Amino acid sequence: MNSSATPGSPTYDLAAWRKRIPIIASGALIPMNNCSQAPQTDATRAAAERYLESWNSSGMDWEAWMTEVALAKREFATLINASPDDIAVFSSVSEATSAVASALDFTGSRRRVVVSEAEFPSVGHVWLAQQSRGAQLAWARVHAGEIQPDAYDGLIDDETVLVSACHGYYLNGFVQDVAEIATRAHAHGALAYVDAYQTLGAVPMDVQATGVDFLASGNLKFLMGVPGIAFLYVRPEVVARFHPTVTGWFGRSDPFAFDVKKLDWSASASRFDSGTPPVINAYIARAGMEILNEIGVAKIHAWNQRLTQRLIEGGRTRGFTLHGTSDASRKTASTAFVVDDSHTIEHAMLTRGIIASARGPVIRLAPHFYSSFEDVDRALDALASSLAPA
Questions:
Q1: What is the mean pLDDT of residues 188-209?
Q2: Is 8 part of any domain?
Q3: What percent of the chain has pLDDT over 90?
Q4: If DSSP codes are grouped into helix, strand and coil, which group holds residue 318?
Q5: 23 burial class (0-12, 13-18, 19+ CB within 10 angstroms)?
């Protein structure tokens, strides 16, 4: 689905993709909330129905279902330039983070975990919970809605076991230089953990180039999926070092040996797998990621940057207060404006046909590959009218 780009279109066929998203095709609503939840596509709907039909017609088809989980891992691996063997599957990024944390030893000389203040609370809470196991936390400060790599200077030292740095700040979309942060962590013998929930699918990610040791993302945002499934990349060079205590039968070298007394670890990242994987979610996740891999995240990112620039400039014209950087090249596809009551504004915008995302002191507008300049302008106008005195 490619076409020549015009000033108001991407390098792929925008109109064709919009027809495949029912909520847009019907004219019911304009989704500008990919930082919270992706809209349904014809492909993700068909994937869910394919599982339901399998369940209904076969009653039980575990071979086909496990194949689908493996194929979803493959699509995730393709997105980040990894091998499917480098990928584990979870129900959430919280669970993935907990599995990584459970594999760390906080009883030796390396007890420090450096955490950015931009982490989503769920990730930060996992690291806070490790204090009862001996972890000592240090926080990289957010300043003016951003974190620069030098914020980690003086925090990462030879007693650091891991640095947790989100790729995209959930509040305003600021993107951290995780390659530079990983380099600084590795210089002290520490590991680098990245939560890419707010960027993956909207911003290119190459785990080989960045050198991160762990990267996690769920699928309900820019990966065009649903809640209840997430994936974890583990750098193959470090896999054998870890024995997570958050585990289950799918973490074994042969899950179907059913040996209750044997804790044998898979040789690949699947040692981080735990219980029975979320099968129907895997069907949907695979379909969503196939879309992104078909279009190409580099093309999506180029279009998202143009949409983001239009949001920033349009917000400035309308007198909105931007939260964080005004440099679209340093953001994921999410732009935040400061408001007094974000949840009230979110509801008011919904009545005007725009799905926005409230988060604390801001309202977030997050387009994606299917969004148009007209969508952006209508969203900004809806925000302006929602902010206007009654």
A1: 98
A2: no
A3: 96
A4: coil
A5: middle
Maximum Cα–Cα distance across the chain: 67
Q: Which residues fall within 8 angstroms of residue 67, CB to CB, at 6 or more apart? A: none
Residue 196: which pLDDT band, with cuts at 50, 70 and 90?
very high
CB contact at 8 A, 151 and 304: no
**81 is a domain residue:** yes
pLDDT at 2: 43
CB neighbour class for 180 (10 Å; exposed up to 12, middle 13-18, buried from 19): middle
Tokens of 45: 């709907």
CB 138 within 8 A of CB 114: yes
Do residues 91 and 192 share a domain? yes
Does the pLDDT value for residue 3 go beyond 90? no
Check pLDDT > 60 for residue 241.
yes
Directed axis angle between helix 93-102 and helix 121-129, to 10°? 20
Q: Is residue 1 part of a domain?
A: no
What is the average pLDDT value for the chain, to the nearest integer? 96
Sign of CA dihedral 85, 86, 88, 92: negative
> Are residue 194 and residue 265 in the same domain, yes or no?
yes
- What is the domain-level CATH number for residue 210? 3.40.640.10
- pLDDT-based confidence at residue 5 (cuts at 50, 70, 90): low
Q: Answer for the pair 204, 67: CB distance below 8 angstroms, yes or no.
A: no
Domain final residue, candidates 269, 293, 317: 293
Name the DSSP letter for residue 103.
Answer: T
Residue 346 lies in a domain: yes
Which pLDDT does position 390 carry in this prediction? 67
In the chain, the number of structural domains is 2
Contact criterion met (CB below 8 Å) for 324 and 143: no
Q: Which domain holds residue 341?
A: 14-40+296-387
User: Which pLDDT value is given to residue 292?
Assistant: 98
